[in-house]
Amino acid sequence: MIDDANYSSRRELGRNLALMLLCLAVLIAAGLAPAHAARLKDIASFSGVRNNELVGYGLVVGLSGTGDGTTNEFTIRSMTNMLEKMGVSVNPANLKPKNTAAVMVTARMPASARPGSPLDVTVSSMGDAKSLLGGVLLITPLRGLDGRVYAVAQGSMTLGGYSAEGQAASAQKNITTVARIPNGATVEREVPFLFNKQDSLTINMANQDFGTTMQVVNRINGAVGGNMAKALDGATIQLAIPPKFQGNLVPLMASLENLDISPDSRARVVVDEKTGTVVLGGSVRLTKVAVAHGNLQIVVAETPNVSQPGAFSGGTTQVTPQSDVKVKEQNNRLLLMEGATLQELVDGLNSVGATPRDLISILRTLKSAGSLHADLEVL
Fold first, then answer.
1. What is the pTM of this model?
2. Domains of the chain, residue spans
3. More exposed terminus of the chain, fewer Cβ within 10 Å: N or C?
4. Cα(26)–Cα(54) distance, rounded to whole angstroms?
């Protein structure tokens, strides 16, 4: 009986110890994950992982009288050349392109695209076509910057809007001169680039920040082991391919792009005066400053009075002006203590009823006074 009791006690102690170790491991793992972390692939790009822009010129046919007018000479010439290539001889003067529109076709081809891969294309009108609704894009070669054909596009288009008009009224929703063709292009030639043959990778950070860049370098070196990554500047990192990943970069990329990074950047305030939009970064700080912001409103009203002369006085009727001037001024005061945070700044400005336009003026004045420790960018 004593041995059984000791065995049960040791067994219970072992379970408790295992539970404590598990909890400790979870706490350590949670501590390793950076606060407010973002994935590396969301804040940086890798060499060899990019899109290639393609463009082409084509014709859209089958429109219901909403195509280009007769003044677009390039549309008529394109129709003439197309028909002559098909063995049809026509007189350009007899062509009426109201059911045809000249368009530019654009697409983005990833570096990993291979012959036969589909691509989405965007079709945009070049002339004075009113709508591309119901049109069909004829076969259009898409070229890269080197002038070579990399894909061919053709097919029916989809629009995100409509337009209709009569003699006295018209209605339109969204844009009807731009359309898309999902999987409307087929890759015919791949980009001459061998991703797995690279002996080094270049990582380009979205924002230039030395602290964030060094954090990425340390995280990469900790993940792959050794000093394989080094920072070339505040936004560029060069990574030498470890021997075990040479010739097979996909597993390395899969592990790197999911690394957790806590990005940092300079404190910034962005102001869009056209719309009155103000965006303040979380690192914005203020030194001790008192702000007095008031709205001055002056209203001048002119009320003409008519002065009538007395009977048999021989006088004439006169108009005498009467001016009423009203002045209304609101003087709201706001005290921002030293080291005020973004939340304190927003709460203080809201408490005095500051509008976005008022906020723009206040932020500019704070920056001029040297109390706003952030980059003020006006769009």
1. 0.63
2. 51-161+172-187, 194-261, 268-308+316-378
3. N
4. 49
